[in-house]
Design brief:
Elements: H1 12-21, H2 41-48, H3 59-73, H4 81-102, H5 112-139, H6 144-169, H7 175-198, E1 204-205, E2 208-209, H8 210-224, H9 229-233, H10 237-245, H11 248-252, H12 255-258, H13 262-286, H14 289-292, H15 295-304, H16 307-316, H17 326-350, H18 361-373, H19 379-412
Antiparallel strand pairs: 1-2
Helix pairs in contact: 2-17, 2-19, 3-5, 4-5, 4-6, 5-6, 5-8, 6-7, 6-17, 7-13, 7-16, 7-17, 16-17, 16-18, 17-19, 18-19
C-alpha cells in the first residue's frame, strides 16, 4: 500500500476554501450506505487534518510509560510504526491459530503450555500496541493512518481474547460463548461510536482502563495455565466459596447464584460490567453538547448508528449453538463486526456519515435465519455455509481495508510500512 508524495501543502487561502467546501457530516442521517462504502474527497480532507484525542490516562498507564518508552528506544529507527502494530497483531494471530488446533470449538481445555503462550502473546501484543505511537513520534512519521492500523488490529484481536477465555472456561457449543463474544465486540464498537460523536476515544473508567484489562488478562491466563481448570471453573459457587466462608456461603447466597458454576458466574459478572460501561458510553454521547444541542432528532440519529451491530449480535443468538461448529459462527460474526468497527473508526476520522443499515450485515443475518428455520439443512450443511461466510467476510474485510489504506496513503503522500 504505497503512494507517490504529490500533494502540496495548501496555502492559507486554499485551506480556508477547503474548510468552507468540506463539511462535517457525522450528524447526517443516512439509511443505507450506498456510495459511502469508501472514503470521499471530503473524508480524505478531514483525515489529513485529523488529530487523535484519547481520554485521561490511568495510574498504571503513567507507571508503565517509562517502560514502554525504554522498549521503544531499543527499536531500530528504520522500523515503521505500523510494522510495530503488525508485530503485535502477529502475536495474537499465532496464539489464535495454535488455540484453533488444540481447542477447535472451545469445548475442551488446551494444554497448559498453550494457555501460557496465550498469556505471553497477550502481554506482548498490548506492549507493542503501546509502543507504536512512541515509535511514530520518535521517527517523525506520525500520521492518521496509524490510528487505523492501531485500532483496526485491536478490533480483530478481540477474537483472540474471546478464544483464550473460552478455551479454559470450555463454553463452546453454548450461548455463553455467544454472550461473551457479542458483549466484548459490541462494547468495542461502542467505544468507537462514542469517539465518532464526541471526538474523544474513551479507554478508561476512573483508574481502570484498557491497560489494566489487557495486562490482567495476560496475568489471569498465566495463573490459569498452572491450575486444574476443569475442576475449578466447573465447581458450583457454593463449593467454591465454602472453603473460605464455611456454611455461611450456603445460607447467604441466593439459590440461583449458589448452584451456578464459577465459570458462568464470571461470565455474568463480565456481562454486567460491560452493560454498565456501555450505558455510561450512551450517557456521555447523549449528553455531549454536539448531540444534546440538536434535540431529540440528534439523539435518535446517534442511537440509530448502533442498529447494524446490534442486529448482528441478536442474529448470533438465533442459531442453536449445539447445531453448528462454534468456531465458524465466531469467525464469521467476528469478521463482520470487525469490518463495521473499522468503518466506524475511519468514518470518525473522515467525518463521514455512518449509515444506519450496513449492507454487510445481510449475508450473516440471512444465513442465521436459514440455519434456524430450514429443517432440511443438516449440521454438515450449516457448517459448510458458515465456512463459506467466513471466507466471504475475510475477503470483504481485506478488500475494504486495502482500498482505504491506499486512499489515505495517496492523500497523505506516505508509504504504509515506511
Amino acid at each position: 500500500c504505497s503512494a507517490t508524495p504529490t500533494d502540496q501543502a495548501p496555502t492559507p487561502s486554499a485551506a480556508a476554501t477547503n474548510n468552507e467546501e468540506y463539511q462535517d457530516e457525522t450528524h447526517t442521517t443516512v439509511l443505507f450506505e450506498g456510495r459511502s462504502k469508501y472514503l470521499s474527497q471530503s473524508g480524505l480532507h478531514f483525515i489529513a487534518n485529523h488529530q487523535y484525542r484519547p481520554s485521561d490516562y490511568t495510574y498504571l498507564d503513567n507507571v508503565l510509560n517509562p517502560f514502554w518508552t525504554y522498549l521503544t528506544e531499543c527499536l531500530p529507527l528504520w522500523l515503521a510504526p505500523n510494522m510495530v502494530t503488525t508485530l503485535g497483531g502477529v502475536h495474537c494471530g499465532l496464539a489464535y491459530g495454535i488455540l484453533w488446533y488444540y481447542c477447535p470449538d472451545f469445548d475442551t481445555t488446551p494444554p497448559s503450555w498453550v494457555i501460557m503462550l496465550c498469556a505471553y502473546c497477550s502481554f506482548a501484543y498490548y506492549t507493542l500496541d503501546c509502543m507504536d505511537g512512541k515509535q511514530a513520534r520518535r521517527t517523525g512519521s506520525s500520521s492518521p493512518l496509524g490510528q487505523l492500523f492501531d485500532h483496526g488490529f485491536d478490533c480483530i484481536c478481540t477474537l483472540f481474547f474471546v478464544a483464550t477465555f473460552s478455551s479454559y472456561l470450555e463454553i463452546g457449543g453454548t450461548h455463553w460463548y455467544t454472550l461473551l463474544q457479542t458483549s466484548l465486540q459490541f462494547a468495542f464498537f461502542m467505544a468507537q461510536w462514542e469517539e465518532y460523536h464526541t471526538h474523544v476515544l474513551p479507554h478508561c473508567a476512573g483508574q481502570v482502563g484498557v491497560t489494566e484489562v489487557n495486562y490482567a488478562s495476560a496475568l489471569l491466563a498465566f495463573i490459569v495455565s498452572l491450575i486444574d481448570r476443569e475442576v475449578i471453573f466447573q465447581k458450583s459457587m457454593e463449593d467454591t466459596l465454602s472453603p473460605f466462608f464455611g456454611g455461611l456461603a450456603s445460607t447467604v447466597l441466593p439459590p440461583l447464584v449458589k448452584d451456578m458454576e464459577l465459570r458462568h458466574f464470571i461470565l455474568c459478572a463480565w456481562f454486567i460490567s460491560s452493560a454498565i460501561l456501555m450505558g455510561l458510553s450512551v450517557r456521555r454521547v447523549l449528553t455531549h453538547p454536539r448531540i444534546a444541542g440538536g434535540g431529540a432528532k440528534a439523539r435518535i440519529n446517534a442511537m440509530s448508528k448502533l442498529a447494524s451491530p446490534f442486529l448482528l449480535c441478536a442474529a448470533a443468538f438465533i442459531v442453536p449453538p449445539a447445531y453448528i461448529r462454534t468456531r465458524y459462527l465466531s469467525v464469521s460474526l467476528g469478521m463482520v463486526l470487525s469490518l463495521l468497527t473499522k468503518k466506524m473508526i475511519v468514518f470518525s476520522m473522515a467525518k463521514m456519515p455512518f449509515a444506519i443499515i450496513q449492507t454487510d450485515i445481510f449475508p450473516f443475518i440471512m444465513v442465521t435465519l436459514w440455519i434456524r428455520y430450514d429443517g432440511n439443512l443438516t449440521k454438515e450443511g450449516a457448517d459448510f455455509v458458515l465456512g463459506v461466510l467466513c471466507f466471504w467476510y475475510a475477503y470483504r474485510l481485506l478488500r475494504w481495508v486495502n482500498v482505504c489504506i491506499n486512499q489515505i496513503c495517496a492523500k497523505l503522500g506516505i508509504y504504509c510500512f515506511r
